[in-house]
Design a protein that fits this description.
The complex is a heterodimer of chains A (about 525) and B (about 100). By secondary structure, chain A is an alpha/beta fold. Chain A folds into 2 domains: about 5-300 and about 410-505, Amidase signature (AS) domain (Amidase signature (AS) enzymes), CATH 3.90.1300.10; about 325-375, no CATH class. Chain A has 18 helices and 11 strands. Chain A has an 11-stranded mixed beta sheet, sandwiched between helices. In chain A, β7, α9 (about 275-290) and β8 (about 295) form a beta-alpha-beta unit. Chain B is built from 3 helices and no strands. The model of chain B has no long low-confidence stretch (mean pLDDT about 90). Helices cover about 35% and strands about 0% of the residues of chain B. Chain B is an all-alpha fold and about 100 residues long. Classes of the chains: A alpha/beta (about 525), B mainly alpha (about 100).
Chain lengths: ~525, ~100
């Protein structure tokens, strides 16, 4: 069996036993990227030299008998919205095309300290806004199971890299489903930790009350291993919570005895594809066969998820993205051209005798901001800035933003009530399997509606993951969504590992040809 | 709720965007569609509900008030589109009518 077909935990066992070196493992994944990523497009940048040098240093350390970190020389792919010091970090946007952060994200420091080898930066929807990775300013990422289809997003590159065997571990971020949806569509495991579980320091901000960094991998134990490295309090992120980090990787294989599984009837209604529903219900039956009891828990506010999310997230985004002004870093438009354009406009209005238009003409500085941002941002980012700016503007704040914050609390209360009766909630990750590239690019609302089941987790601030639970008749992976109360990642991982020990969906691999 | 093209244009100034004629047209239609959809929230009674701005409702987090080193000036300026030895450079603001 080739090295790239092994799980991270199996690779780690071989590394620890000195059966293979980190340089060999890293080389095998780099070769695989070289062979297949031209077609998949998961990576925006790969730094083979740096990865091999880091691997060699870890091998040296191990050979000398010195302690090696938790990741022991395993390669890790990183979503391109995590700041890497001195190295280009684009967030999938033209506006950050040449941006080289002056510091590392906390999770990057943690991966390095744990002796994870950073392979490169993965593709994503611009500023993590989107569900298909089609909003990347740079390239498409294709689903390894069917390259005419989307991998999901926004962590599409992160998920496709793992599914295609180009990285054993991957770090993504999830604001409304951006880890779990691509994990589901690519047939891998992806976890969105509880808000506050992982430091967001050095994560390019999209919606700060919803964003959370998390792991993607082939199996649940692999995911547990990476979460253990990523999690923990960070003085640089005051929203990270000061709670001890459980040893997820050690407990992951302990089954949950007497598990009470909840099913939300509202999640099996209109819009849910029949094949997805069948696979999810069969997964629930697997849990019953493992001794779990299943009961329905109603979430009456579930139908308001998408509307609530698509007010709150754009509001926070419009505020966060105000920093891209062409002054401090990032792209700036040609200011001489701006001045010339304004002069021509002024003349045109003066000739027409339109005094009001002359009066309202932008200053050079304001026009520089506007042109910089309009040239630097893509259509979806502009749409969200517009929605957020509108919803926060005078006269609309109460009707939209404040209203959404109130419904957000009702959604959270639905979960609080449900978790008094059940330990874990199971359901579909997305309403359908992966759709064809281009299918929804002209219909933003249709794209937004795919977040129906996942965005609710972020609004409530709880933990959730996606694991493979079947295939559609077209051979596309289907994901099972498991949600747990805040800071119950351990429960989530143990519950998900139970399922993977009883099934083999997570062991299926796409055929990339040429092997 | 429908939104007019003039409102969209006004919002584009507030959001510091400059939209082309074609973009204004598409944006007006799409924002109208999305705002129409979110009207769904109006049917929810939120009279007695406290807004929830954040998932973890922690109180203020303090740190000790001590001097720490930050980014060196050159590092902070390293990504500037235009700079001199000590500052970011922008087009003239004052006297620009």
């Amino acid at each position: 069996m080739s090295l790239t077909a092994l799980s991270a935990c199996d690779l780690l066992a071989k590394l620890d036993a000195s059966e293979v070196t980190s340089a060999e493992v890293t080389g095998a994944f780099l070769d695989r990227i070289e062979a297949h990523d031209g077609r998949i497009g998961a990576f925006l940048r790969v730094d083979a030299e740096a990865a091999l040098a880091q691997a060699a240093a870890i091998d040296q350390k191990r050979k000398a008998g010195n302690p090696v970190g938790r990741l022991g020389g395993l390669p890790v792919a990183v979503k391109d919205l995590l700041a890497t010091e001195g190295e280009v970090t684009t967030c999938g946007s033209r506006i950050l095309e040449n941006f080289r952060p002056p510091y590392n994200a906390t999770v990057i420091e943690k991966i390095r300290a744990a002796d994870g080898v950073i392979l490169g930066k993965t593709n994503m929807d611009e500023f993590a806004m989107g569900g298909s990775t089609e909003n990347s300013a740079y390239q498409l990422t294709r689903n390894p199971w069917d390259t005419t289809r989307i991998p999901g997003g926004s962590s599409g590159g992160a998920a496709a890299a793992v599914a295609a065997g180009m990285a054993p571990l991957s770090v993504g971020s999830d604001t409304g489903g951006s880890i779990r949806a691509p994990a589901g569509w690519c047939g891998i495991t992806g976890l969105k930790p509880t808000y506050g579980r992982v430091s967001r320091y050095g994560l390019v901000a999209f919606a700060s009350s919803l964003d959370q960094i998390g792991p993607l991998a082939q199996t649940v134990p692999d995911t547990a291993l990476l979460l253990e490295v990523l999690a923990g309090h960070d003085p640089k992120d005051s929203t990270s919570v000061n709670l001890p980090v459980p040893r997820y990787a050690e407990t992951v294989n302990q089954p949950l005895k007497g598990l009470r599984l909840g099913i939300v009837p509202e999640h099996f209604g209109e819009g849910l594809d029949g094949e997805v529903e069948k696979a999810v219900r069969e997964a629930v039956a697997v849990y019953e066969s493992l001794g779990a009891t299943v009961r329905e828990v109603s979430m009456p506010h579930s139908k308001y998820t998408v509307a609530t999310y698509y007010i709150i997230a754009p509001c926070e985004a419009s505020s966060n993205l105000a920093r891209y002004d062409g002054v401090h870093y990032g792209y700036r438009t040609d200011v001489k051209q701006v001045a010339a354009d304004l002069e021509a406009e002024r003349k045109k209005y003066e000739d027409a005798g339109d005094a009001a238009a002359v009066e309202n003409l932008d200053s050079v500085l304001v026009r520089m901001y506007r042109k910089t941002r309009s040239e630097g941002f893509g259509p979806e980012v502009k749409r969200r800035i517009m929605l957020g700016t509108y919803a926060l503007s005078a006269g609309y704040y109460n009707a939209y933003y404040l209203k959404a914050l109130k419904v957000r609390r009702l959604i959270r209360q639905d979960f609080d009530r449900a978790f008094q009766q059940v330990d874990v909630i199971a359901g579909p990750v997305t309403p359908t399997a992966a759709y064809p590239i281009g299918d929804k690019v002209d219909d933003p609302l249709a794209m937004y509606l795919c977040d129906l089941y996942t965005a609710t987790t972020n609004l409530a601030g709880i933990a959730a993951l996606s694991i493979p639970c079947g295939f559609s008749s077209e051979g596309l992976p289907i994901g099972l969504h498991l949600q747990a109360p805040p800071f119950e990642e351990e429960r989530l991982l143990r519950g998900a590992a139970m399922f993977q020990r009883a099934t083999d969906w997570h062991l299926k691999r796409p055929d990339l040809g040429g092997e | 709720m429908a939104i007019s093209r003039a409102e969209v244009e006004k919002v584009s100034l507030l959001g510091r965007l400059l939209l082309s004629e074609a973009e204004l047209e598409t944006m007006t239609a799409q924002m109208g569609q999305i705002l129409g959809y979110v009207e769904l929230l109006n049917e929810v009674d939120t009279e007695q509900v406290e807004p929830m701005a954040h998932a973890v409702e922690v109180s203020d987090v303090f740190r000790s008030d001590e001097v720490r080193s930050g980014l060196a000036r050159d590092q902070a300026l390293a990504n500037a589109p235009q700079r001199d030895d000590e500052c970011y450079r922008v087009p003239a603001v004052l006297g620009d009518s």
